[in-house]
Amino acid sequence: MTTTIDGKQVAATVIEAVKAAAGKLEKEAGVKTGLAVVIVGDDPASHAYVSSKSRMAKECGFTSVQHTLPEETTQEELAALVQKLNADDTIHGILVQLPLPRHLQSEPIIQSILPEKDVDGLHVVNAGKLATGDLEGGLISCTPAGAMVLVRGIRGGDLSGLNAVVIGRSNLFGKPMAALLLNANATVTSAHSRTKDLAAVCRNADILVAAVGRPQMVKADWVKPGATVIDVGINRVPAQERGEGKSRLVGDVAFGECAEVAGAITPVPGGVGPMTIAMLMANTVIAAYRRAGLKPPRF
Ligand SMILES: NC(=O)C1=CN([C@@H]2O[C@H](COP(=O)(O)OP(=O)(O)OC[C@H]3O[C@@H](n4cnc5c(N)ncnc54)[C@H](OP(=O)(O)O)[C@@H]3O)[C@@H](O)[C@H]2O)C=CC1
Ligand SMILES: Nc1nc(=O)c2c([nH]1)NC[C@@H]1CN(c3ccc(C(=O)N[C@@H](CCC(=O)O)C(=O)O)cc3)C=[N+]21
Fold first, then answer.
1. Looking at ligand 1, which atom is closest to the CA of residue 173?
2. Potential cystine with 119: which of 131, 232, 270, 283 (Cβ 3.0-4.6 Å)?
3. Kind and range of the H or E element at 249?
4. 81 Cβ inside 6 Å of ligand 2
5. Which ranges carry the Tetrahydrofolate dehydrogenase/cyclohydrolase catalytic domain (predicted)?
6. Hey, which CATH number is domain 28-120+272-299, 3.40.1190.20, 3.40.50.10860, 3.30.40.10, 1.10.3720.10?
7. By the 8 A CB rule, do 26 and 61 touch?
8. ipTM of the predicted structure?
């Protein structure tokens, strides 16, 4: 029997633990956890993500501030806002929603966030800690951290002897995901657009993770029978059956056919997506504990 992994339910469990941790920090140290989310421009999908992040932060009992900047914001104005948030003691986590409008450079902005407030895990200090196997000292990118929680739920914490294939090598997802799997003792392959015979590479995977941005690219005959399939892709495609101009979300995996071969598989929506938001909350409360000189809980 194939297991459909319920990311919503796992995310709800993480959120309960975050709420409890935030409550304890407030009661015992008088510290209210604070998250600042910065969004520039008016991309509707980005606005939808950002408002669900702000809403969830409030639900966790955090101070939640959202900075919505106009499309024509300059590099200097955005940099000045990050400096202000860096210096603000009530803010423990800063997230700058990506992508930024084309006239802005995201890299200098991300690298100017204090590493201890970089709840996206994109600062070189945090990426470097993960790459060198220091999983407790830094902050780990939310989506791979969330995907890893789902893998652990199926395969346990030690992946010794298992082959893992990650399709995609972005700094936001593919690279940190490969690092986490390697850290858990899997034998890891990073596949990408230059990989030869991707289907054959994937068929070798006990754990197959797809983060490409191509709707339903992974087919049933790419999946090893019994494999754990984690679909990170978020693709909005036209859905004529719902009426003119309507769309629906699909992942990078052809869910129906792959579910017949896989041992466990994440759906889209309802898989990795909700975990991303939950792990953002977890990273923020971790940052607040560290700032207060306390050992943070593990999620
Ligand atoms: N659920 C969630 O919370 C999140 C979902 N996402 C989703 O995950 C997907 C990937 O995101 P992200 O990592 O930021 O994307 P990027 O566009 O940064 O990276 C895509 C990767 O896919 C590789 N790729 C592209 N085409 C192919 C192909 N034909 N065969 C094999 N590999 C290919 C690229 O290879 P190369 O490097 O060679 O160009 C690249 O490494 C997107 O759908 C995004 O929306 C992202 C973040 C969070
Ligand atoms: N600095 C930065 N950090 C990010 O982590 C980041 C980002 N920028 N830019 C965009 C991507 C994308 N991303 C998602 C978050 C939640 C869902 C999510 O909740 N998805 C729901 C469905 C949502 C819907 O229905 O539209 C689900 O899959 O069930 C998806 C995608 C975070 N990203």
1. 13
2. 283
3. strand 247-250
4. no
5. 5-120
6. 3.40.50.10860
7. yes
8. 0.97
- The answer, yes or no, to whether any atom of ligand 1 lies below 6 A from the CB of 198, is yes
Q: Domain segments of the chain: what residues?
A: 28-120+272-299, 142-268
Within 10 Å of residue 182's Cβ, how many Cβ atoms?
17
Measure the CA angle with vertex 193, ends 236 and 125; round to 5°.
85
Q: Which atom of ligand 1 sits closest to the CA of residue 174?
A: 13
Indicate the class that CATH gives domain 142-268. Answer: alpha beta
Q: What are phi and psi of 255, to 5 degrees?
A: -60, -55
Ligand 1 midpoint to CA 213 (Å): 5
pLDDT tens, per residue, the chain with 299 residues: 899 999 999 999 999 999 999 999 999 999 999 999 999 999 988 999 999 999 999 999 999 999 999 999 999 999 999 999 999 999 999 999 999 999 999 999 999 999 999 999 999 999 999 999 999 999 999 999 999 999 999 999 999 999 999 999 999 999 999 999 999 999 999 999 999 999 999 999 999 999 999 999 999 999 999 999 999 999 999 988 888 888 999 999 999 999 999 999 999 999 999 999 999 999 999 999 999 999 999 99
Q: 160 C-alpha vs ligand 2 centroid, how far in Å? A: 30
State which ligand 1 atom lies nearest to the alpha carbon of 167: 32
How far is the centre of ligand 1, averaged over its atoms, from the C-alpha of 192 (Å)?
9
State the pTM of this model: 0.96
Nearest ligand, measured from the Cα of 215: 1
Question: Where are the alpha helices (H) located in the chain, listed in sequence order?
Answer: 7-29, 44-59, 75-87, 106-112, 124-131, 142-155, 174-183, 198-203, 255-259, 272-291
